[in-house]
Amino acid sequence: MRLAVNLSLFLSAIFWLIAPGNCGAAEAPFVLHYELGGEETIDVRRGRLRWLKFTDAHHPTEARAATLNATNAAWLRHWLETYHLFSLASDYPATNARPEVGGGTLAVRVGEQQKFITWEPDCDCLELTAAIRDLKSFASSLVSTSATEKSAPETASMLREVLKPAKKVPFKEVVQSTTQHRVLDFEPLNAEHARLRDLIRAAAAAAGRQAIADGVFAARANEAGNHMEPFVKRALRELKLDARTPVNASGDAQITGYPDLEISGPVPCYLELKTYNAATANTTQRTFYYSPSSHPKITRDALHLLLAFEMKKIERAGKMAFVPAHWKLITLQNLAVDLKFEFNQSNRSMYGAEAASAVMAEGTVTE
What we know:
This protein is an alpha+beta fold. The protein folds into two domains: about 5-160, Mago nashi protein (2-Layer Sandwich); about 170-340, ECO RV Endonuclease, Chain A (3-Layer(aba) Sandwich), CATH 3.40.600. The chain has helices at about 5-20, 70-80, 125-160, 170-180, 190-215, 225-240, 345-350, and strands at about 30-35, 40-45, 50-55, 60-65, 90, 105-110, 115-120, 165-170, 185, 240-245, 260-265, 270-275, 300-315, 320-330, 335-340. The strands form three sheets. A seven-stranded mixed β-sheet has the order 4-3-2-1-6-7-5, sandwiched between helices. Strands 9, 10, 11, 12, 13 and 14 form a six-stranded mixed β-sheet that branches. Strands 8-15 form a two-stranded antiparallel ribbon. Helix 2 packs antiparallel against helix 3 (about 125-160). The longest helix has about 35 residues, at about 125-160.
């Protein structure tokens, strides 16, 4: 049984080919309509190629287009000549007639020359099969290249928009968006909240006294923060608070990144530790950082507090040391943060194995 072609689409293609304005060499030196069983079409008209795929006869699931340049147009003319399309028969029945989807149509016009070809599944024409295969490969390559070229300005535009610095973003919203957990408000009239505040206050005083006694040896005041953590953690535990290094969403204890400590209990609390120099306390120097992670350290709704120690430099046993002079316990519930993007790369990609193709020259330094 001969497979019926989609006459409505094919006849519309023929009308399109012979319609006024489509035959002039200046306007349409090359016109083509290819259709495969209502599944896909390739149209070439007025220097544009359009490629469509369908789930049914009326609704394309994928549509792409590209502009032909001189090289593309030359390829199409060469394609016509290579496969002698104007010399082929106009109708190709199937070798074993089966009523299955897969037949197609091809309508081509160049100047006054035109050709209409129909075929059924398993048609006995290797040259036509090869021609359609090359046409589809050409169309696929052309629309893919066009999409890639188009993506460059789109990517640049997107980056310009995304990379605009954001100012005064509520930290609450940042945490909830990146971890799906809330920053709880400290409630002074809540007895459990007040008790936790008083215990952290006592721990801050105790940690400060111990740090003065031992001294904190670091190159700079802001580096002394890491040295203060053991003092604070020990003082919190002595006051029977369950303080630990936060366990991230993967179940691993993680030292780096925000926050520094997690306090479990009736009121969950995350505690960040900082040190600062009184001389720079009123400058715009950045001091608080938060980076989203696929394995965040924030795994529950909790209070978010920050304990900061003002450090002063002294001489201790012939060495320069830092000791705390003042402390502040701060709630982060109303903190507003700025967003600044950073592009970075690793040593491996810059200097190691992944950089091999980019190295222009190298050598060993000898005496």
